[in-house]
Amino acid sequence: MIWCRFHPASSCLLTLFCFFGTAIQAGAQLSSTEQRFLDLVEPIAQAPTEDFRLLPLVKMGGVGAGYRYQIAFLSYGVVSLAHSDPDRTPHYRRLFLRLLDKMEHPTTQSFWKKSGYRGDGKSRDNIMYRGHLALMYALTHFSFGSTRDSEKFHKLVNSLHREMVSSPSGGICCEPDQLFIQCNTVALLAFSLHDRLHGTDYAASGHRLLRWAQQKIPVPGTQLFRDDYRMNNGSSSLQMAGYANAWTISFLGAIPEYREQALTMYRDWKQSFAVNTPGIAIARGAPEWPSSLEDAPREFASATLCTFFGTLAAREANDRTFHRKLSRSLATIELIRPALNFLEPEDEKRARLALYISLYARTFRGWSTLLEKPHPIFE
User: Fold this and answer.
1) What span, in angstroms and rounded, lies between the C-alpha atoms of 64 and 56?
2) Residue 357 and residue 370: Cα distance in Å, rounded?
3) What pLDDT digit, counting tens, does each position of 261-287 carry?
4) How much is the pTM?
5) Between the CA of residue 109 and those of 67, 106, 124, 140, 372, what are the distances in Å?
């Protein structure tokens, strides 16, 4: 079995997961976890639009990054809360729209120029921001019945679609030279909602990208993809393929014409990256554990991220047993992660960021569930 063949350096970590995960199982209730998530989101959303102090700005390569991801995934969690608690939909709508205002704020977009990338990051490339912005515009209408941003939604989706169909790969880069399949699937879900709301056929454009990826960056023997692709030299990496494919599955599985492909990918992902025990599970960031103890901290971070997104993929694939196991692991990480701040200033911020993502992953009900039907227009 796969879980018997992991690196010895990870055995202590898995033992901790099993111990704490079992303890948490007895007393945890989903409603209390959702309330914890709401208690976290409300002060962030209700703060003035220009106030980002409650969002940890983690340094990546010396450049502040991550606001776009934090705001997007927190907003997706709000959509899930509204599904669980429909009587308070007006409150969740207000929170969502406040988060959207933050997403549009120049502070969120400033990473592009600080990183020295060409252009303004608004008219091309930068799918890592523009894709999430498009999906948030889509959810404003689809999940909350607000047409406040309909014009922006049309304009952005049309721009992304034109760029995607004219691209040699069928996809849009994040950084100007680096393509990630997972980030493009966010835009594809936004396209799918635009199709359902306005009768377009934009989501079909993703087929060419997925065919290209299977030719250029396959994980051999599977329907999975490598983590990224460098357009200037054709290089790619497997180091973060676990999280990248789990992310892809969690979005792609909610688009009807891609669901079967997403489920096939999920089966391959689980076989390739899951570390499964009778009571608890984690997911590896790469197909193999690192060969030296020196790489253990990096692999812990990679496995944590993959476990976050694996929880979302399991939910989308309706794999309830594995979803429960991964959720127990995340509950364990929430307990032990603050104790793993290895004397680096950024670690406290990373621990807070990990908590945000963990609560989101544990409470999110899955796109297929949340997008069954549009909310009636309230304006």
Assistant:
1) 10
2) 18
3) 999 999 999 999 999 988 899 999 888
4) 0.89
5) 8, 5, 13, 20, 31
